[in-house]
């Protein structure tokens, strides 16, 4: 059986949050299965908060200080030398390249050197393009994806919506494989925590996460629920803009901004509701955490949300419709027992995000690529 025994994982730019945890879980499980892992990344500062095996071989690239979107593209270009030098010292028949993000440059290089490459595309590519910060650049990258993704040997999507969007641009639709994020080890046992009147949301403070809609909805909800507070965990470029919005709406003291935290469970166990207002996502790990902690949740129908909340069982609102969000929060609050029951149903399906189960699927799919191509 022509299985791989070496994997080159490409993760050029460090990001705090869910994707780095997924990366950690994946490479650690590969090491446990005696697979040699080479990790191409910009630096090691992410090890302060994530436990990655010392057996992972780090191939460093230059750390960059650019805007978040441009950083990924420029990091990919500067990675060329690192990738090429690595290819000169490996057995191509036993090595596979797995790109976690910024996939276009790796596809080109792997095709030139005859290395099998599987790429991971998380978000719905149409929503990600439509709501991008820099539209011209986003449409240009979208055009490149249509061309170059077809040259990859395999594509992993981490949500149903992401998979469907990829199938629209790939000539071979069966090239796309749906594999959920390897995110949690086990179910959290039900414990009684005294809930506080807190609405919680977690994410990078940027356009994608759409916190403006949440703050405007909270303003309406808070008129008849004055004891509630809104807590937002995260950092990002829009922090001051969001603070100004809260002040202009007269709810400055009710909206609390916390920086990025490693253990969000401290806040989840106290929160009465969780809101995911994102314009687009991959598979939102913060929502998985909320479900695992049995926090009644409401979300947009962004990529991954329906997979986590279990489709019709979930409660959703339209993108940017803060009036609808406020109305549904009021209904959830008035029918709290029903809200709890819904989230317990979602939790019963959360085994789909177990680390070992999903990494097994990753490895099985990667081996299939090595055998069939």
Short description:
By secondary structure, the chain is an alpha/beta fold. The chain is built from 15 helices and twelve strands.
Task: Give structural notes.
With 373 residues, the chain is of the alpha/beta class. The chain folds into two domains: 6-182 and 354-372, Rossmann fold; 198-351, Glycogen Phosphorylase B (Rossmann fold). The protein is 41% helix and 14% strand. It contains 15 helices and twelve strands. It has a seven-stranded parallel beta sheet, sandwiched between helices. The protein has a five-stranded parallel beta sheet with strand order 10-9-8-11-12, with helices on both faces. Strand 8, helix 8 and strand 9 form a beta-alpha-beta unit. Helix 3 packs parallel to helix 4 (104-113) and helix 8 crosses helix 13 (322-334). The longest helix is centred in the last third of the chain and has 18 residues, at 355-372. It is globular. The model has no long low-confidence stretch (mean pLDDT 88).
Secondary structure elements and their pairing?
Blueprint: E1 6-10, H1 18-32, E2 36-41, E3 57-60, H2 68-78, H3 80-87, E4 95-99, H4 104-113, E5 116-121, H5 125-130, H6 135-148, E6 154-157, H7 160-167, E7 176-178, E8 198-202, H8 211-222, E9 229-233, H9 239-248, E10 255-258, H10 265-268, E11 273-276, H11 285-292, E12 297-299, H12 305-309, H13 322-334, H14 336-347, H15 355-372
Parallel strand pairs: 1-2, 1-4, 2-3, 4-5, 5-6, 6-7, 8-9, 8-11, 9-10, 11-12
Helix pairs in contact: 1-15, 3-4, 8-13
Net shape: globular
Which architecture of the largest domain per CATH?
Answer: 3-Layer(aba) Sandwich
CATH class category name of the largest domain: Alpha Beta
Strand content: 5-15%
Helicity, in percent?
40-55%
- Relevant CATH superfamily of the largest domain: Glycogen Phosphorylase B
Tell me the span between the first and last alpha carbons.
Answer: 13 Å
């Amino acid at each position: 059986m022509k299985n791989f025994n070496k994997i080159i994982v490409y993760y050029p730019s460090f990001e705090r949050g869910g994707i780095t945890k997924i990366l950690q879980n994946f490479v650690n499980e590969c090491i446990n299965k005696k697979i040699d892992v080479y990790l191409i990344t910009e630096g090691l500062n992410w090890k302060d908060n994530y436990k990655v095996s010392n057996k992972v071989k780090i191939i460093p690239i230059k750390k960059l200080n650019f805007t978040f979107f441009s950083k990924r593209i420029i990091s990919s270009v500067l990675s060329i030398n690192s990738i090429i030098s690595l290819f000169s010292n490996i057995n191509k028949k036993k090595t596979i390249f797995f790109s976690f993000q910024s996939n276009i440059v790796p596809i080109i290089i792997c095709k030139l050197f005859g290395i099998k490459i599987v790429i991971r595309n998380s978000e719905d590519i149409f929503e990600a393009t439509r709501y991008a910060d820099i539209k011209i650049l986003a449409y240009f990258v979208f055009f490149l994806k249509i061309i170059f993704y077809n040259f990859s040997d395999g594509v992993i999507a981490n949500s149903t919506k992401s998979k469907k969007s990829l199938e629209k641009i790939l000539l071979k639709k069966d090239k796309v494989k749906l594999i959920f994020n390897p995110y949690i080890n086990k179910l959290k046992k039900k414990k009684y925590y005294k809930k506080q009147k807190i609405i919680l949301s977690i994410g990078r403070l940027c356009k994608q996460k759409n916190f403006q809609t949440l703050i405007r909805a909270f303003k309406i909800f808070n008129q008849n629920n004055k004891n509630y507070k809104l807590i937002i965990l995260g950092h990002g470029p829009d922090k001051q803009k969001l603070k100004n919005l809260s002040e202009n709406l007269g709810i400055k003291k009710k909206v609390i901004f916390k920086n990025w935290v490693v253990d969000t469970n401290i806040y989840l166990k106290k929160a009465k509701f969780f809101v995911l207002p994102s314009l687009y996502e991959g598979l939102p790990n913060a929502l998985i955490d909320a479900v695992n902690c049995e926090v009644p949740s409401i979300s947009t129908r962004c990529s991954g949300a329906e997979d986590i909340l279990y489709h019709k069982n979930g409660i959703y609102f339209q993108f940017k419709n803060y009036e609808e969000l406020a109305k549904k929060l009021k209904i959830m609050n008035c029918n709290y027992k029903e809200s709890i029951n819904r989230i317990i149903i979602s939790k019963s399906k959360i085994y789909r995000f177990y680390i070992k189960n999903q990494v097994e699927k990753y490895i099985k799919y990667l081996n299939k690529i090595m055998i069939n191509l």
